[in-house]
């Protein structure tokens, strides 16, 4: 349940006319009073003898009783209280009780013998009510409505529990503005899946991802088909911007523009510029040219770079200072946006949903110090310039590799937010992680299936040697890994690394060092991607000759420890259906 306290106004009759009217887009149905300060106020909606003027005069009476010079210039207080879409439809009596609790909690009408303001609660839709009040108490004083929005939210949390409604996670004021009911109804009439505000927010967010200057940012907005208005100072310096969808028009057939700050707090031009101001300057001169340069690249190379950047970022989020962690978490949102934009259809929808969910996790009251997150922002940029990826071959396999690494980065972000008490952000990051799990299933099934079959075809002596190696390198995880269907894919990966001259024991140890594995459904799957990235092995093994590891049957052992009992025969021919 979301109370939304609006700034005060000066015309009671104007607000009542809107509440009892058809709405901007005919969305109001059966407007009527559910309760009021005295329970007997005239209802212009259902009483044919009552008028809006009657209700307005009754509400304004304490204001008009004051001398003209003593009347507040803006005396109209207004809030809407909206139920969650998943909640049941509340009765008028339930809404009346909610209204009385909200005005009491905000000190508009505190009750218990204390003088209150006059107010009325109007319902013109199933899922919400509006409360209008005049800010002069019956004894001629101003009510104590300081921080009324915060107090209304606290009361709403109690109401949710008592009425068995969806319990909203407490926020911290950093969330993007929700679409209004008028915007939602307009989207429904136009057959849009989302409101114009939501479409613009996603488009602007993607345009920012990996951008390095104003010019590049606005070029991306224009390329996306948005209408742009820029606001400049008399000196010509750019101060801000607005954007609109070409086909989102108002009643005068003019485009509806939204300032960046109205889309999300971090999409104002000054906040956007923080992302690239000093990003390169903070680096040593020897690295600046390398970071600025963007070659054509390939989708697969961009995804490998993303996996590496995510791997390093996990450590920063887990062990870095708060400002650096916040910056890396914000940059993670950019990477998710670009991965969704450039991935194949089988994963694109889940990746887009992950990016949309994580958007809420990218902001908090911990101010990000930008610049040290350049590796993630460069990864986002490389994904853009690498172009669209296919869902098969090296493109598809490196997509799975990148998703695997990003899952652990997002999990680290969820833990960081939870420790800071950022409930909404932690919940959003967890939801993004669930979408990544689904995307991973679509991306990883084929490349892991190929590796699984290659592992099944390894000779028994090779598998025995891999088992001994695993038990020596990872004694605490070995038995769990050997019990997973994904063990065969890991065995094939270890064999490839050994054939390439890499030390498999060191690779295994490095793959688990400083990184948690407790959230992984399949530890062996995770180790496959970490080892293939570290050892620079092809993510897609289907292009390798089937005999690429055959010579390992007689390869010298790398361990001097006495072998333990041979690994047991494995049963089951199916690849793991589990994800990260």
Task: Please tell me about this protein's structure.
The protein is α+β, with helices and mostly antiparallel strands. It has 4 domains: about 160 residues; about 80 residues, no CATH class; about 160 residues; about 100 residues, no CATH class. About 50% of the residues lie in helices and about 10% in strands. The strands form 2 sheets. Strands 1-3-5-4-2 form a 5-stranded antiparallel sheet, with helices on both faces. It has a 3-stranded antiparallel sheet with strand order 6-7-8. Helix 12 packs antiparallel against helix 13 and helix 19 runs parallel beside helix 21. The longest helix has about 35 residues.
Mean pLDDT: 87
Order of helices and strands: EHEHEHEEHHHHEEEHHHHHHHHHHHHHH
Structural class: alpha+beta
Number of strands: 8
Helix content: 40-55%
Strand content: 5-15%
- Terminal residue distance: 34 Å
> Which stretches of 5+ consecutive residues score pLDDT under 50?
285-295, 550-579
Main sheet overview: 5 strands, antiparallel
**Structural domains: how many:** 4
Shape: elongated
Number of discrete helical segments: 21
Radius of gyration from CA coordinates: 30 Å
Strand order of the largest sheet: 1-3-5-4-2
